[in-house]
Amino acid sequence: MAFYYYVSINAQIPLSVPDWQTPFVEPLACSVHAVNLGEIQREDIVVVSGCGPLGLGMVAAAKLKSPKTLIALDLYDWKVSLPIVSTTIVCLYVHFSVYLNISLHAAGGG
């Protein structure tokens, strides 16, 4: 959390937002933009692979679109148990070997 001392944001951020939260403005904006580009509809199945800063933002933004199914995946079980993720419809801890097999298959090597 100490990184906020080194971040310079050229934007109008309300004074009510604590200094330590300001570094999250840009990643959250990117997450919301990505979800908006996806044009999620109510009948869609949405998968967010990775629950880091961007992934968590995407889970939160995708929830607002009310898709039929929202799946959050991560390599660490503690991430999928975070409140923003654990209230999704499906949240899964995926072992690294599963990620690797999926990636190899998608790349045509599996």
Can you tag this structure with a few keywords?
alpha/beta; Rossmann fold; 5 helices; 3 strands
Short description:
With 110 residues, the chain is of the alpha/beta class. The chain has helices at 25-37, 53-64, 77-80, 83-86, 96-106; strands spanning 45-49, 69-74, 90-93. Helix 1 (25-37) packs across helix 2.
Written account of the structure:
The chain has five helices and three strands; from the N terminus they run H-E-H-E-H-H-E-H. Helix 1 packs across helix 2 (53-64). Helix 2 links the parallel strand 1 (45-49) and strand 2. 19% of the residues are buried. The longest helix is centred in the first third of the chain and has 13 residues, at 25-37. The chain has a three-stranded parallel beta sheet with strand order 1-2-3. The radius of gyration is 16 Å and the shape is globular. The chain has 110 residues and is an alpha/beta fold. The mean pLDDT is 79. It has one domain: Rossmann fold (3-Layer(aba) Sandwich). The chain has helices at residues 25-37, 53-64, 77-80, 83-86, 96-106; strands at 45-49, 69-74, 90-93.
- At CATH level 3, the topology is Rossmann fold
What's the total count of β strands? 3
Indicate the CATH architecture.
3-Layer(aba) Sandwich
Classification by helices and strands = alpha/beta
Number of domains: 1
Distance between the termini: 40 Å
Helix content: 40-55%
> Can you count the helices?
5
Radius of gyration: 16 Å
Question: CATH first level: which class?
Answer: Alpha Beta
Task: List the helices and strands in order.
Answer: HEHEHHEH
| Main β-sheet description | 3 strands, parallel
